[in-house]
Amino acid sequence: MSFRKTLKVAWEGLMMNKVRSFLTTLGVIIGVAAVIMMLAISAGAEADIADQINALGANLIMIMPSFQRAGPGMGMAGSSASLQYSDLPVIRDNITGINGVSAEQNTSQDVKGGGTTLSSIAIVGTTSGFVNVHEYTVAEGRFITDQDNDRANKVAILGYDVAQELLGDTNPVGQSVTLGTVKCTVVGVMEEKGVVGTTDYDNRVYVPITLVFKKFVNSRFGGTNLRVVYVSAESKEVMDDVMSQLNTLVMQILGTDASAPGFTMTTQDSIIDMRASTTETFRNLLSWVAAVSLLVGGIGIMNIMLVSVTERTREIGLRQALGARPRDVQLQFLMEAIVLSLLGGLAGIVVGVGGSWLFNEFGSMRTVLVMASIPLSFGAAAAVGIFFGYYPATQAAKLDPIVALRHE
Fold it and tell me: How far are the Cα atoms of 143, 152, 176 from residue 170, in angstroms, in the given order?
């Protein structure tokens, strides 16, 4: 019997019980859709992490104090020295191949202005290099200057949403706002940036870092130490050279050596890689869930095909009596299983792609469609049909024609 005729007979066999055929493919549909959607969720989580880190700026190097063991039985203690605000010009003037240097000190305060009070707004104490390092521009007015930090001037640059909520259509520049109990003059408004990761950049207020040290941080507990210094390299090609220069210079500033430098340096790529390794466990778990779904779908196909062989025993005997060879019977039932799995695979692709899009548009978690998951899941569906359809097809081919014809 030709392949085309065998396929036609297999299709007619499936159409004899449309509802049962649909319910059989449902397991495969769910399995294929699960593969596509699970990988999309995993890729979305990784993309969110990358966006959040990259939003800090391009080619960033972060210098942070390290923590060292103080002695037997004394637990962990901070490094004996930390970078200070006065060290930033030294780094800026002595390191080549960089776009800028900046530092931040965060706090949270109620912000009042224009008769409106906003609760628990992020106050970011920073330096003049912030806009270059983080590639974040001022929409109106100006940003913090070195003079503002040298004098701890009471000036503020508002995030876009803060400016809108406090002052509305009024020109914010020159207006007064109160941060906690500190009255500041607005000298600028940042461009609209939105939420990246978990950070709402439009809902922040920027002030000189020395003002934060002076008014909002308890200096007796290391409050004037810089917890993170950001250095922006000119390009990825010079990153290694810049890090080497920084390593030497920072040890000179802190008075440390290579055995106990007192600080660590981290790049964006290393943070992304570290976070990605964390999400790998999540991705593997989702992959196993999807694989189990496909396995259940395959078991469903095997079960229904075995039932079909039992129900159609007389049909099989009649076909053999009319000249059908055992391999023709085997191919017919194998084709039925493959057609079921392929139809389920196609439908699963539609459901998976559509579900990923809907989840991204209306859900709380970002999804990114992984194009490789489409042929992967479809191929898996085909493999399921062949694997789980082979045994029922073989059982059908082994039936004795005489016994089959006598079957009631």
Answer: 19, 26, 12
The pLDDT of 330-354, averaged and rounded, is 85
Question: What separation, in Å, do the N-terminal and C-terminal C-alpha atoms of the chain show?
Answer: 27
For residues 28 and 344, the answer to whether their CB atoms sit within 8 Å is yes
Residues in the chain: 408
Q: Exposed, middle or buried, 210 (CB in 10 Å: 0-12/13-18/19+)?
A: buried
User: Tokens for 126?
Assistant: 């920073």
pLDDT of 241 above 80? yes
Report how far residue 90's alpha carbon sits from residue 341's, in angstroms, rounded to the nearest whole number: 67
β-strand 116-126 against 204-208: which pairing, if any?
parallel
Tokens of 274: 């570290």
CB count in 10 Å sphere of residue 100:
19
Instruction: Give which of 248, 253, 198 is closest to 226, Cα–Cα.
Output: 253
* 96-140 tens-digit pLDDT: 999 889 998 889 999 999 889 999 999 999 999 998 888 888 999
Which residue type occupies 286?
A: L
- Alpha-carbon gap, residue 351 to 35, rounded angstroms: 11
State the helix-helix crossing angle for 326-362 and 268-311, rounded to 10 degrees.
140
Q: What's the Cα-to-Cα distance from 380 to each of 23, 341, 346, rounded to whole Å? A: 19, 9, 12
Number of neighbouring beta carbons within 10 Å of residue 185:
13
Any idea which residue has 């912030």 for tokens? 130
pLDDT tens for each residue of 359-372: 888 877 788 888 88
